[in-house]
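Record type: monomer structure entry
Structure origin: computed from sequence
Chain ID: A
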Amino acid sequence: MSPLRTRIRPAAGRAARPSREETAQRALVLRLLSLLLQYPDAELAGERTALAAAVNALPPSPAADELAAFTTWFTAQPADALESHYVEIFDLRRKSSLYLTYYLHGDTRRRGMALLTLAQTYRAAGWSADSGELPDHLPVVLEFAALAGPRAGEAPLRRHRRGLELIHHALSDVKSPYAGLLTALLSLLPPASDAELAAVAKLAAEGPPAEDVGLDPYSGAGFAPPGTFVPPAPARPTLMPPLTGPTDSEPRR
């Protein structure tokens, strides 16, 4: 892997269009985040050394620092401890669930439509996720962002900024090393407005909306009715090209 030398600049405050190399580096960070936020099964655990090497080759940036701190912890843990920790913080805690539409719509009919809209966004870009996960699963959203480019690809991340903030707060509260990955991701997005931060505080206090309906057209896709929770089956890591950064920002076809 060739070292990447150009500094990754945060999205906020860019005065000029990013260069091709900057876009490729940004995509690489997003791809690494997508992989590291997936369930650490045997396949992913077996790639920990390669992932750490890719992180260490990144140029200096706040996101790179957070990724380096996380992979130091990630590579040092026993595989079974990683799996247990992941299930505990992501599958058994609704406040840190990785399914982003839940934070905007809760268990309501609107959530089903939001999932369908997101899937249609992927198809319109010529991209099809093959991980077996719902389209709002954060690693899937991150992979799309990496492959489709900063403008259209990162739009779903910007749209779900409140949910990302809440996940970050929840992970920080339990002192999970995964909080650093959300810190890295948020550093790439425009700063949250006062209104967004107020909405996050309200969401943390009151929770997302709920109603006694299914999630058609995604009913039966791993979520329980309001008041109960059934952890979704862990998805296999998404297979990606070698971690050398894309040559352009076009989505996979």
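Annotation 1: Residues 20-206 form a domain with the TorD-like fold (CATH 1.10.3480).
Annotation 2: The chain has one domain: 20-206.
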